[in-house]
Amino acid sequence: MAHGTAAVAKVDSPRSPYVRRKTTRGNYELYSWVFMRASGVVLLVLIFGHLFVNLMVGDGVHAIDFGFVAGKWSNPMWQVWDLLMLWLAMIHGTNGVRTIINDYATRDLTRGILKGLLLLAFTVVVVLGTLVIFTFDPCPPDAPAELLASFCTA
Amino acid sequence: MTATLEAAAPSPAGEIPSFTVTLRIRRFNPEVSEEATWEDFTVEAHGTDRILDALHKIKWDEDGSLTFRRSCAHGVCGSDAMRINGRNRLACKTLLKDVNPDKPITVEPIKGLPVVKDLVVDMEPFFASYREIMPFLITSGNEPSKERYQSPEDRAKFDDTTKCILCAACTSSCPVFWTDGQYFGPAAIVNAHRFIFDSRDEGGSQRLEILNDKEGVWRCRTTFNCTEACPRGIEVTKAIQEVKRAMITRAF
Fold first, then answer.
1. Closest Cα to residue B69, out of B91, B87, B95, B98?
2. Chain A contact for B36, CB < 8 A?
């Protein structure tokens, strides 16, 4: 019945007491949970469709150049496809990172700063991406003709 | 037949093998130090002994200041949930021989709740969440003059979640609960499930409303820590998912 009193290692200090701060009822988290599942399924189709058309059809990956992208974005179907992919992927990813921040940040200030940065990144990418998809000029003047899509010279 | 019973020596055949085991216990006493430390105790134990028996030996024979909760000591009252070798278990249901007594066995208070002393934690935040989901039968109308009947099929819907003993092993094993303790926790949801799916109860939608909180069921990440920790074998994660499904079918 030996009795060892050696303190083996120091451990972090015990938690201070806490209570649930306030009730935050509402359907927000419910809709966000459903959105993650629904957008995930749609993104599977969009992304694999995108990869298939860009990398597998015709010359595959070797066909990608400025003219290829310009040709795709002059078609409203691909504009909508890419826009949907951009928005769904950004909202899906941002919402995912938001839940990770909620799970791992223990202090309100850290949580606030991280979420602020996340929102900033989200806004920049979505605004920039949307702008590019809609204001893209497939036939910029004084560009070498061999780089442009075939319909530019016509 | 000659009476030779007196002469026969006690046979060692029925004897239970004994061994020495080291318990590495996380001690904390705020009156002495703000720091918690590990302390080793070595005791003689039998093959049939549980962690709780070893803790009793330490408290009764070696260090009376060792503090822990236990009441029934048989896995029903839910007082002695603790973190044994890194997993939440009931000290009274865990045999020493099942947690590798060759190495020191670590015993810590359950995580995420404020430690009062040694292995005793403040259960108040845990019970506060439990009270919030209204763990009692809610009905309307007049008091019935006979029993409230229920078919075996209806009873089976929530049978699993009636087993909860409120030991907090599940809630204190949940990584989401560890973050800031704002999450309702598996135990509160399990006990809400017990009434939400009870055909005699009429408070289901109120309870769903309460758990449809930012800190409610939607914080569950289905890591299954709670299901693994439950000493009663309740399928906790499944119960939480059933509550989620009930909310979604209600909303759409």
1. B91
2. yes
